[in-house]
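Milestone 3.1: sequence recovery, worked example.
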């Protein structure tokens, strides 16, 4: 299955597909994906967030998109974001069915499973950019700042600790210090981007060759805006 999928992707890169230009709201097909570069994929997400934040998200024909993408998916980007109910990538970037892969986990961290998912998304399915999307007022980050221990959450919080430890402050080192919490969230995005490069030779090589971009971003739950 994987081998055939990889062969399929290779056929794409040989230029067998005639690229078809992208337009906002257009269903992502193999031909449309072929026209998208890592840079243009990022621009598409940026423009989508501008629409969302100004309450100008476009109206999509979901039924048409479902019917078209049912034949195959050719997304333009992958987003790693928190499970937070306000940090919903498809809405934040004004994207539709079949447009983006999303991996969601509290605190937008990566582990082997998420890295494997991102490798599939980029190497096999042709996604052009990976966005690690942190957000303001993140409960997981606050939990890490307060050294919360609870069931399975304890192990997840431990993965956020390097960001807490790397963050300097003259104030309190807990969730009461909002500035500290935000600095930790920013640091966590940077460390997660770095971890993707360090732990995935496949994605690192794709980035080095200019086949994908790996970027961090911060979503403000109070304004709807993403800062890049
Ligand atoms: Zn969160």
């Amino acid at each position: 299955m994987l081998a055939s999928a990889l062969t399929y992707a290779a056929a794409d890169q040989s230029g067998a597909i005639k690229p078809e230009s992208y337009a906002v709201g257009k269903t992502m097909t193999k031909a449309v994906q072929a026209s998208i570069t890592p840079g243009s994929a990022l621009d598409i997400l940026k423009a989508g967030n501008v629409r969302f934040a100004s309450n100008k998200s476009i109206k999509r024909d979901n039924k048409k998109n479902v019917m078209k993408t049912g034949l195959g998916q050719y997304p333009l980007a992958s987003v790693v974001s928190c499970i937070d109910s306000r940090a919903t990538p498809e809405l934040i970037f004004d994207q539709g069915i079949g447009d983006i892969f999303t991996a969601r986990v509290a605190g937008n961290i990566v582990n082997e499973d998420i890295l494997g998912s991102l490798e599939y998304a980029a190497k096999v399915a042709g996604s052009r950019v990976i966005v690690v999307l942190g957000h303001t007022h993140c409960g997981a980050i606050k939990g890490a700042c307060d050294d919360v221990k609870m069931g399975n959450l304890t192990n997840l919080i431990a993965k956020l600790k390097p960001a807490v430890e790397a963050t300097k402050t003259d104030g309190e080192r807990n969730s009461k210090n909002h500035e500290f919490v935000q600095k930790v969230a920013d640091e966590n995005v940077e460390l997660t981007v770095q971890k993707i490069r360090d732990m995935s030779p496949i994605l690192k090589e794709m980035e080095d060759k200019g086949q994908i971009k790996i970027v961090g971003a911060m979503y403000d739950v109070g304004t709807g805006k993403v800062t890049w």
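Residues 82, 84, 106, 135, 138-140 surround zinc ion (CB under 6 Å). Residues 215 and 225 are 16 Å apart (CA to CA).
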